Amino acid sequence: MLARLAELPLLVVLLGVTGCLTLIPALHAVATDQSDLARAFFYAALILLILTVMLGIATAAFSPRDAARSHLASLVLAYLLLPVAMVLPLREALPDTSLVNAWFEMTSSFTTTGASVYPAERLSDTIHLWRATVGWYGGFMVLLAAYAILAPLNLGGSEVASGRVPGRGPSGRPRLRVGLNPPTG
């Protein structure tokens, strides 16, 4: 089963992890007897996990021409799309908030900047737990990207230590192709 998960596109796996992480505040809300918040987070987890399964089935045969470019695109799309998915429980838990405020809150948590549009006393402990979980997930994403995506491509600072040309592998050949046609010869 893990081999099948490894074959899925990175963005689908990250969306599934987001859905699983949404269950943490749902369990906290159940433990603290906040049934409305528990329902909001559980329904958001259910929606995200069903969407992940549907996308996983739809992209099961996906095979990128260039895995490095696919991972870089997934990294950019993760910072664009995952905060939108993370808004689902927050929007339901805070019905009087605007979509822009909820998106800003999740983007600032995911990028670990810590900016907030809400006073701390307005939010419940369950929502603070969700913000902290999203911040942890964003920090983990940065470490994952640096280690698993950028370092093999010799990007993101590792070229300083290695002395190689950025974007080139150990043999000196380009790792990323910039044209539509693959190089010949």
Task: Name the helix and strand elements from N-terminus to C-terminus, one letter apiece.
Answer: HHHHHHHH
* N/C terminus separation: 39 Å
What is the overall number of helices? 8
The number of distinct structural domains comes to 1
Largest sheet: number of strands, sense, barrel closure = none
Structural class designation: mainly alpha
**How many whole angstroms does the radius of gyration measure?**
19 Å
What is the number of strand segments? 0
Determine the fraction of residues in helical runs and give it as a percent range.
55-70%
User: Mean pLDDT, as a whole number?
Assistant: 84
What secondary-structure arrangement, pairings included, does this model have?
Elements: H1 2-7, H2 10-21, H3 23-31, H4 35-58, H5 67-93, H6 99-110, H7 125-150, H8 158-162
Q: In words, what does this structure look like?
A:
- The relative contact order is 0.12.
- The protein is built from eight helices and no strands.
- By secondary structure, it is mostly helical.
- The protein has one domain.
- It is globular and about 55 Å long.
- Helix 2 (10-21) packs parallel to helix 5 (67-93) and helix 6 (99-110) crosses helix 7.
